[in-house]
Amino acid sequence: MKRIRIIGLAIVAVFALSAVAASGASAFTTWDVEGSPVTAPVETTSESAAGLTLSSGGTTVVCKGTDTGTVEPEGKDKVNTITVNTEKDCTVTVAGFCESLINVKPVNLPWNTKLVGEKEDEILPSTAGKNPGWAVTCSTILGEKTVTCTAPHAHVEVVNNAGKVETVFKEKVTENAACEGGTSSEGTVRGIDLIQVPGKKLSAN
């Protein structure tokens, strides 16, 4: 799952991506597979085993999920699909006005991303120019309501971990999202997404 990311109905969803600014550390500029920079797109999978936390307007949702994508030359990467089973993999940890969770889904896929700065990955608008984000639908006292949170870009910390790469959504690194349809104009995403190339070692360098 690669770079998952953003919400409004105060929701916490599961899956993830990574990036952190380490003072004085050199920047990551390439994706390496088996120790060599990629020269063509390489397929990846990712997952957020502990879940991504989406929060907005007093509601927090945590979701686990998986995604598919690619790592590419020049430090570019992409999230093509994200799979979330709302009933099985999502939990409302702080209800707010969400009486029951109906659906959690990513919006505006595919998401383009790129290694930037000091060990960070930046989630960028889709090829169609639309901002990446999440939509959360809940049953409320006023009926069914969907909150959509998006951002033109979001940074995550990148951490190499035993042949896989963590993308970390964290405070002071990952920007807040702009939300519509809920009780707050902002939302946050927190958590870790673990990216891998099946059967091979992946690293950011």
Written description of the protein model:
There is one protein chain. This protein is mainly β and 205 residues long. It has one helix at residues 86-89; strands spanning 31-33, 36-37, 42-47, 52-56, 59-63, 66-71, 76-83, 90-94, 100-107, 111-116, 120-124, 133-140, 143-150, 154-161, 164-169, 177-180, 186-196, 202-204. The strands form two sheets. Strands 3-6-7-10-11-14-15-17 form an eight-stranded antiparallel beta barrel. Strands 2-1-18 form a three-stranded antiparallel sheet, with no helix packed on it. Strand 16 and strand 17 (186-196) form a beta hairpin. Residues 1-24 have low confidence and may be disordered.
Distance between termini? 20 Å
Outline: elongated
The arrangement of helices and strands along the chain is: EEEEEEEHEEEEEEEEEEE
Structural class: mainly beta
**Widest β-sheet, arrangement of strands:** 3-6-7-10-11-14-15-17
* Count of individual beta strands: 18
Assembly state: single chain
β-strand percent reads over 45%
Number of domains: 1
Output the number of helix runs: 1
Backbone CA Rg: 16 Å
Q: What does the main sheet amount to? A: 8 strands, antiparallel, barrel
As residue ranges, the low-confidence spans are: 1-24
Percent of residues in helices comes to under 10%
Mean pLDDT: 87
